[in-house]
């Protein structure tokens, strides 16, 4: 068994066609078929049922595919990290979610460049979920996200908590009401925009409750997980929004709010967006926050990341933002 044989098998399993797999791998069909036969002979197992169209994996083949795909992903990650360790990129590639861009990220990048005139920075708009794979592949060196990740290759630090605000149309009856309560918002259409959902957790998971009369003053302990982030916030207080609409991103959500089609919750840094059409009001719930995380690989830290952290904390000091200074640790 060697990598060429395994890669041939993976291509066949993915595309369910010898001709398509041959095109993808750059091999002739006879060569591809020979690689598969050698792999099967070496294992003493038939992996592909060749008599079905499209091709199907045998039960053993599906098991092998599931396990070996994970191994190959890790091998590719190790290869990429080894290459970067040998010759680190001079540029610092930073991933970010759009909501962070409305906060202090521009000031942080300006401070970083001011303190390090020779640094080259590349910014990439990329979701929290996609940042994990982008870190492993080397597309980014560090990422600003809104969600905690449980991944053996990734380490992250919590930079700060940002309060959520409720975004309402200017004509909404509650548009001028300060200190909003989630229970008072439950009869509105809630616009959902997160593409990344919370990981299921047996300790923190909650479920929507039918108790619409709750005051929203104390969280309720319930059992089943709600992983959509905004619904999760309501569920922590046993509240079920009457109606919801899912959209592709935050800008679309705010566009619908501006058009009077519903309300949503956004991090406080977005309070300057569409202010002629949208009213942003505080929530009384102090624990309704959106965290900001910084994450990178556990085993390889770009040499400029400490400079980035210095710039982050310098901006936080200037803006009077509460934080606990941290740094990444490296095994290398």
TrEMBL record:
Family matches, as SUPFAM superfamilies: Periplasmic binding protein-like II, Winged helix' DNA-binding domain
Keywords on record: DNA-binding, Transcription, Transcription regulation
Provenance organism: Psychrobacter saeujeotis
PANTHER family: LYSR FAMILY TRANSCRIPTIONAL REGULATOR, TRANSCRIPTIONAL DUAL REGULATOR HCAR-RELATED
Family, similarity comment: Belongs to the LysR transcriptional regulatory family.
Name by which UniProt lists this protein: LysR family transcriptional regulator
Gene3D superfamilies, A to Z: Periplasmic binding protein-like II (3.40.190.10), Winged helix-like DNA-binding domain superfamily/Winged helix DNA-binding domain (1.10.10.10)
Domain HTH lysR-type residue range list: 1-58
Record keyword rRNA-binding present: no
